[in-house]
Design goal:
Elements: E1 3-7, H1 10-17, E2 24-28, E3 34-35, E4 55-56, H2 61-73, E5 76-79, H3 85-98, E6 105-107, H4 115-123, H5 130-158, H6 169-185, E7 190-199, E8 205-213, E9 216-217, H7 223-233, E10 238-250, H8 258-269, H9 273-285, E11 287-288, E12 296-297, H10 312-325, H11 360-363, H12 369-385, E13 390-401, E14 404-415, E15 441-453, H13 462-472, H14 477-489, E16 493-496, E17 499-502, H15 504-516, H16 523-538, H17 543-564, E18 575-580, E19 587-593, E20 596-600, E21 610-612, E22 627-633, E23 640-646, E24 649-654, E25 663-664, E26 668-673, E27 680-686, E28 690-695, E29 704-705, E30 708-713, E31 720-723, E32 729-732, E33 740-742
Parallel strand pairs: 1-2, 1-5, 5-6
Antiparallel strand pairs: 3-4, 7-8, 7-15, 8-9, 8-14, 10-13, 10-15, 11-12, 13-14, 16-17, 18-19, 19-20, 20-21, 22-23, 23-24, 24-25, 26-27, 27-28, 28-29, 30-31, 31-32, 32-33
Helix pairs in contact: 3-5, 5-16, 5-17, 6-14, 6-15, 8-13, 9-12
Length: about 750
């Protein structure tokens, strides 16, 4: 074997195999091969070196052995893991684990998995970027130190095991808790609106809303304020005071980066973040779209990116497609350049289709429904980003009555531009007004005063939380889905529809963290740490320097917190449900068990009643088990037997249950007679799972066999023959007979 290519996933390996010749072997590492041990801290914190102690990941022994064998036989080893910090670290771990020297280990990256990109990457290998590796290592060690030092503190203080704290997850939980506190503390304010339905010379009615008076906007805070306006304008004419017309350009949004893809797919498609990234990963790694379209192809560029930049080739391809598909008027006068965030990592392009000619409709039959929806979103957003702006005709009209001003606005699409293919606002932008003239007198058709109250801030959804993370520099887009998944799985936050709300556990641990570790749960501190991790990647800071400066302050906080909570009592409040215990009438509370959350009676152990609930805390009603009628009669009470579905499969049960609890296994006659009593041999099961064969006359006849009896007789002794389980041989049931042969049907 001349060359070995190692990637993370089997799907990616399968795609790349089709692009490289027989001189290359492509294998997958299935993610990381080494990590810190789970049983110990795994980091030397006594000095300033912070040396990590990596071990091979359990369960990957055979894979590592195979990789070492392949690497030993290869002339060159191309480490083709993902083009980001995590991928760089995986490549470094592989190089160390395989004992590769610099001459043999070649690091290759590609922003898209297409034939051209893969071949170009292999032709231009580089060395492993240790600054990127150290940036990833610093993040991993920081998270390990915080998690392994803070978690025992929480266990001891709250007297609850399996709690965890994290450098970013604790901040995320605090953000959600603080929003919940805002909602609970919110006091609504009353306000009123007035909407008039008016009609001009064209006899076409339109709505106008009260704005104020000649001095400016006026707020109607009560019914008295509203009635004063209504009384003043009653019976008086409405006169068109001014009409302002303009043409407004509406520009397209840039192509997706990781955070905007997560926000938009969450909002438009209703996908959870982990699902979004999993689907995007499959589109990036390659999908079989049929031989006519190129076979297995990576359909999008790398989906973990902060950059809005696109390549010249991608721009030219989009320009050609738009010109041919929609016409030259749908192209902007000059190439669009989008402003890149100052903290963005510009190593990769924006998320875009690898081939704009592969339109979503063309691939719909080749993709899963979820893949199609996400690919369509990415494809349309990219094409739209390179199209001409939409032109919107706008009309603003001011109408006066008795010194009070009403306003109305209208807009119509003059030129669709990018709206032809994609509308991020999910509207048409159309709100046409009838033709009006200045000083025109209008007739009131109806008038509607309405009371309102201000609304509290909305709970975060996954999409809006990602937006907050991005705007405040918390975490990085590649970690957002993991952060949110962690705080939900740990029980600090729960989903309520699309919203995220804290649990009592989340609120209590957040309060404890704020009191004892204010830096860890401070947004600005966390964002500054992200910047320092970026500094390691660009070489302006060192891994040990960042870790040492962090740990110095963290160690002091940890010691102070231990002294502070001595003797203090922290009690976790129960999470209440709206479910009433049907045995004792108490309001049930949420508990976490081996199989997840459930509702339990608070009067345990006097009342041990439990009820199943969903992730949002709502009762799951048990559906009655369906019973199918049979022609069997219960031999104990004479009632008809029915067929039911149980935990281990189907079985016969007495229809008089619970008065009669008689049940019988479902057996199947295999057409072979018992060698002991000549009764029928039937197939049976152990708890509906493992099948074996026994006599129908059990327990009077104890014949049983794991091997399958067959109708053919032994040619030597005439006894029954058995087909050996899991083997390709036929043997005689008679132990004194040595007849055996190969099973011809295998």
């Amino acid at each position: 074997m001349a060359n070995l290519v190692i990637v993370e996933s089997p799907a990616k390996a399968s795609t790349i195999k089709g692009y490289l010749g027989s001189n290359y072997k492509v294998v997958a590492s299935n993610g990381h091969v080494r990590d810190l041990p789970k049983s110990t801290l795994g980091v030397d914190i006594d000095g300033d070196n912070f040396t990590p102690h990596y071990i091979n990941i359990r369960g990957k022994g055979d894979l590592i052995k195979s990789l070492r064998k392949d690497a030993k036989n290869a002339t060159k080893v191309f480490l083709a893991t993902d083009p980001d910090r995590e991928g760089e670290a995986i490549s470094w771990h592989l190089a160390v684990m395989l004992g590769l020297d610099e001459a043999k280990a070649k690091r290759v990256t590609f922003n898209e998995i297409t034939k051209t990109a893969v071949k170009q990457g292999v032709k231009n290998p580089r060395e492993i970027d240790m600054e990127l590796v150290n940036s990833q290592q610093a993040r991993r060690l920081l998270d390990r130190i915080v998690g392994y030092k803070l978690s025992p503190f929480l266990w001891k203080t709250l007297s609850k095991s399996n709690l965890s704290a994290g450098r970013v997850q604790s901040v995320a939980t605090r953000i959600i808790c603080e929003r919940e506190a805002e909602i609970n503390a919110f006091v609504p304010d009353e306000y009123w609106s007035i909407e008039a339905m008016l009609e001009g010379e064209s006899s076409e009615a339109f709505k106008a809303k009260f704005y104020g008076n000649a001095d400016g906007k006026t707020e109607l805070k009560s019914e008295e304020d509203t009635n004063a306006v209504l009384n003043a304008i009653k019976g008086n004419p409405y006169i068109v005071k001014s009409i302002k017309k303009a043409v407004r350009a509406r520009n397209p949004q840039p192509p997706f980066i990781t955070s905007t893809l997560q926000q938009e797919a969450s909002r438009k498609l209703g996908f959870q973040l982990t699902r979004i990234m999993k689907i995007a990963q499959s589109l990036y790694e390659g999908v079989n779209i049929g031989a006519e379209n190129g076979g297995v192809v990576g359909l999008i560029t790398y989906m973990r990116t902060d950059s809005m930049r696109i390549s010249d080739d991608a721009y030219n391809a989009a320009k050609t497609y738009i010109g041919e598909r929609f016409g030259e008027e749908y192209l902007p006068k000059s190439r669009r350049m989008f402003k890149i965030d100052q903290n963005a990592q510009d190593a990769h392009e924006a998320i875009r289709p690898t081939n704009v000619m592969l339109s979503p409709d063309k691939l719909k039959s080749k993709l899963t429904n979820e893949q199609y929806k996400l690919y369509k979103l990415i494809w349309e957003r990219f094409i739209a980003s390179q199209m001409a702006s939409a032109a919107i005709d706008t009309v603003s009209v001011e109408i006066e009555n008795s010194g009070y001003i009403f306003r109305t606005n209208g807009n119509t699409v003059k030129f669709q531009g990018y709206l032809k293919i994609y509308n991020e606002a999910d509207d048409t932008g159309e709100n046409a007004l009838p033709e009006l003239k200045e000083n025109e007198k209008l007739t009131e058709k109806s008038i509607k005063p309405e009371q309102h109250f201000t609304e509290p801030p909305a709970r975060y959804t996954e999409g809006t939380l990602v937006k907050f993370f991005k705007e405040n520099g918390i975490g990085r887009p590649s970690t957002y889905s993991t952060i949110i998944a962690n705080i939900i799985s740990r029980g600090y936050v729960r989903r309520e529809g699309k919203s995220l709300c804290p649990t009592p556990l989340g609120e209590t641990t957040t309060k404890l963290m704020i009191e004892n570790f204010p830096d860890i749960v401070d947004c600005k501190f966390t964002a500054a740490m992200e910047d320092r991790l970026d500094n390691i990647a660009n070489g302006s800071e060192t891994m040990n320097g960042v870790l040492a400066s962090f740990y110095k302050g963290f160690e002091k906080e940890l010691c102070a917190a231990g002294e502070k909570v001595k003797g203090a009592e922290y009690e976790l409040p129960p999470e209440l449900t709206d479910i009433i215990c049907d045995k004792c009438g108490a309001t049930m509370i949420v508990k976490n068990g081996k199989f997840g959350r459930f509702a339990a009676c608070p009067n345990y152990p006097k009342c041990k009643n439990t009820r199943p609930i969903d992730n949002e805390g709502h009762l799951i009603e048990k559906k009655p088990r369906e019973a199918a009628e049979t022609d069997m009669i219960c031999e104990k009470c004479g009632a008809p037997m029915v067929m039911r579905q149980g935990r281990y499969g189907q079985f016969y049960a007495c229809s008089a249950y619970p008065k009669c609890k008689n049940t019988k296994q479902i057996t199947k006659d295999i057409g072979v007679k018992c060698p002991k009593c000549s009764g029928k041999i039937v197939s049976r099961s152990i708890k509906g799972r493992q099948r074996f064969f026994g006599c129908e006359n059990y327990p009077a006849c104890d014949f049983s066999s794991w091997d399958t009896p067959i109708k053919e007789k032994c040619p030597k002794c005439g006894s029954m023959l058995l087909k050996k389980k899991g083997k390709e041989t036929i043997v005689c049931y008679n132990k004194d007979c040595d007849y055996q042969r190969e099973d011809k049907q295998q």
